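Q: My collaborator sent me two sequences in one message, no labels, and asked for predicted structures for both. Can we handle them in order? The first one she listed is below.
A: Yes, handling them in the order given. First sequence, followed by its structure tokens:
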Amino acid sequence: MIGSHLKKWLALTWQEKILLMRFIFWLPWISFSLKFFGYLRTRDFLSRKTANIELHQADSAELARAERAAELLSIAGRRGLMSATCLRQSVLLEYWLKRQGLAAEIKIGVRKENTLFDAHAWVELNGIPLAQDDLGQHRVLQ
């Protein structure tokens, strides 16, 4: 198993390795902020950091880079210093994309199957969900 992880690591470009390491480092900070300050205050703080950046719709190359960043962030969320929920990953991805000048949006959806309630967060760019295989029947709240 370690061999396969090492092979995957070696297959990454140096830019992807740097971005993955940044995500691994930033996720605990996002988690801390969400836990102690809440969702709205965390988003407000990050929004102020990107307030002076002019946002635009992504072209096809930017969309491909954003999709790859979302995949790397998912890896960081599963294999990093701590396990990170979809909400933590989405808050960080939206912030990172906005720092790149891209008009990203967090979406939060819910669904109920039988008696089970399920919620999920993801990021959309140009209305396209990033790194999402199947959103199922989630009804979008935001």
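Q: And the one she listed second?
A: Here it is, processed independently of the first:
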Amino acid sequence: MATQRDVRQIALSLEGASEDPSSFRFYVGGRQFLWLWQERVDPKKPRVPNPDVIVARVADDIRKQMRLAMDPRLFFTEPQYVGYNAVLVRLPVATRAVLREVITESWEVVRAARSGRAR
């Protein structure tokens, strides 16, 4: 079972990564690569952060579909993320090894886009 502490440790170990001091969001080169999912708990109220789910960017829709097919208990999406290259990751289901892979991939995707390199 992974935790926010694991996420923070892995994300901040990556070159150039930083954390937003006021929220659980991580950046590389000024661009966000990882954050807490804002869940719509009540349809008539604003979204609220879900501490057990992170959002991680992926390279493209093919990679997104691959992640979603790998393990539906671990990876999922929602209507807000249709057409957006990111997956939602349930921390209580994630192993540290998978979490490291997902976070590193997200960091690489954003870093490459920032520098103009294709991944």
